[in-house]
Design a protein that fits this description.
three-stranded mixed beta sheet; 5 helices; alpha+beta; 2 domains; about 45% helix; elongated
Length: about 160
Amino acid sequence: MRCPFCSADDTRVIESRVVEDGEAIRRRRECTSCSRRFTTFERYARVKTIVIKRTGEAEEFDREKIVRGMRAALKNRPVSLAEVDRIVSELEEQLRSMNEVTSTEIGLRILEELRTLDEVGYLRFASVYKNFGGVDDFRREVSEIDDRSFTLRKKEDGGGEA
């Protein structure tokens, strides 16, 4: 590993630690020439998942793009960043075995997670994802949420009428 300070080729590992739930190794290194220390991360090379957008354009899966979209939808909502990270990590794990996936499939998976996590965040994300054109689109979506909630309550109550 080349030193980022003096570009010497000879560095030694001082400490190694497993991080990111076993997905990476953090190494503290010291340059034998200038004695400065720096940190490196070692990860296995992943097969890249290609996302096919609605326009037909293809791009590499971008975890941060998903995080930004979810954070925007959940702004000022009682949902932690750790919860967003958990959801995106699970999505990323699901996509890891896929060479290609459509942006529609990713959007639907995110909507399913948001539906159970936070209804306001779900509506915000849906309004962008489904390209709401007006209030009627919001009404339709809220009505669907209400219908699902009623159905779930009926099942939990044993199927009887309220």
